[in-house]
Amino acid sequence: MNITSPCTRGPDRTIATGLLCIALVACSSTASSPGPDAGSVAQSGSSSGGAGTMTPVGSSSSSGGNVGAGSGGASASSGGASASNGGATSSSSGGNGGSVITGESGGSSGGMTMDDAGSGKGGAADSAGGWGDAASGGGGAGCPAAAVFCDGFEGGPTLGSAWTIDNSVAANTVTVVSTKSHSGSNSVHMTFAPAAGTTFIDEKMGVTAKGTVWGRVWMYPNTEAGNGIGPDPHVVYIEAEPAGFMGHSATGVRPLNTQSGQIAINVDPPDTGPRVNMVLPRGAWHCFEWEISGIGGTGSVALYMDGTSLATDTGTAIAVIGEMRIGYEHYNAGTTTGDLYLDDYAIGPTRLGCN
User: Fold this and answer.
1) How far apart are alpha carbons 335 and 178 in whole angstroms?
2) pLDDT tens track, the chain, 355 positions
3) How far is CA 275 from CA 159, 243, 246, 272, 340, in A?
4) What is the rounded distance in angstroms from the CA atom of residue 329 to the CA atom of residue 266?
């Protein structure tokens, strides 16, 4: 069968056929024209996407383009690029909806993008460059704007390179787990045998040798209460030491201790500090903040729990420090095993807050 094109029919339908041909040519021209530029589509996806649901991949570009929107973005028909599910780059100034730690690694300006700026959960940056949680979201503490370094331990099954495991008891363990967390998915889990000794994680980033430093950590202790009662009734949970110090300490600036079972601050020398008439809460998450001021001279140490001031040691000599140690050190053997979870650590020059 021969099929005649409508554009070649007889003279009795010339006018109608001509109009139809014009329409078909116009359609063909439109269908063959190139699709919208992929970059412009992606930019459209970014500008229309909600900043609260954007999920940057953690890289930054010096050109500052924001690509993709977490709420779906925009997909291009006829040659455009899909920008759904929000993956791509944040600008060197931090990106649309992202949080930045100034001076850390990850961008052309030294900034580090944060995962899930709306909810405050989940980033997966290596600890050496900072932490992936955005500020104050998701019902838990994220990375405060004033933090120089922070870590939610979301980067994987091992500690990031900023941390050193400082463990003097072979039976004790330090692992990153996903079975319990304050925010996000992971936390650091420490287990302790009854033997006396030290099990800390140490970090140097953000610890100033002189001046003032603030710290914060969320802690879930299941440590043996009796470890603070005995011939040497002293347990250390948070301690500042000179850079590179390892092992069982005879001296230190210790914002969180228990002595004879009560919460205390201890600075050694002179091995003194105020006690609080309360035991360390166990079996629940609590936020501990501390301030060490006058480092390298005469200063003070302050301790807070869940935003409330517990104690301050003033007018005391504060040694030059270079690292912070978080964990468990007890000077006399206990009678049972114990464990401790740590999450949402942050350190900086001003108070960081729990939320």
Assistant:
1) 28
2) 444 444 444 444 443 444 333 443 343 444 434 443 433 333 333 333 333 333 333 333 333 333 333 333 333 333 333 333 333 333 333 333 333 333 333 333 333 333 333 333 333 333 333 344 333 333 345 689 999 999 999 999 999 999 999 999 999 999 999 999 999 999 999 999 988 899 999 999 999 988 999 999 999 999 876 655 555 578 999 999 999 999 988 899 999 999 888 999 999 999 999 999 999 999 999 999 999 999 999 999 999 999 999 999 999 999 999 999 999 998 888 888 899 999 999 999 999 999 8
3) 33, 27, 26, 10, 22
4) 13
pTM: 0.63
d(CA 255, CA 287): 13
Residue 351 sits at the vertex; the CA angle it makes with 215 and 112, to the nearest 5 degrees, is 75
Burial (Cβ within 10 Å: 0-12, 13-18, ≥19) of residue 335? exposed
Three-state SS for the chain is: CCCCCHHHCCHHHHHHHHHHHHHHHHHHHHHHCCCCCHHHHHHHHHHHCCHHHCCCCCCEECCCCCCCCCCCCCCCCCCCCCCHHHCCCEECCCCCCCCECCCCCCCCCCCCECECCCCCCCCCCCHHHCCCECCCCCCCCCCCCCCCEEECCCCCCCCCCCCEEEECCCCCEEEEECCCCCCCCCEEEEEECCCCEEEEEEECCCCCCCEEEEEEEEEEEECCHHHHCCCCCEEEEEEEECCCCCCCCCCEEEEEEEECCEEEEEEECCCECCECCCCCCCCCCEEEEEEEEEECEEEEEEEEECCEEEEEEEEEEECCCCEEEEEEEECCCCCCCEEEEEEEEEEECCCCCCC
Per-residue burial over 223-259, b if 16 or more Cβ lie within 10 Å, else e, is bbbbbbbbeebbbbbbbbbeeebbeebeebbbbbbbb
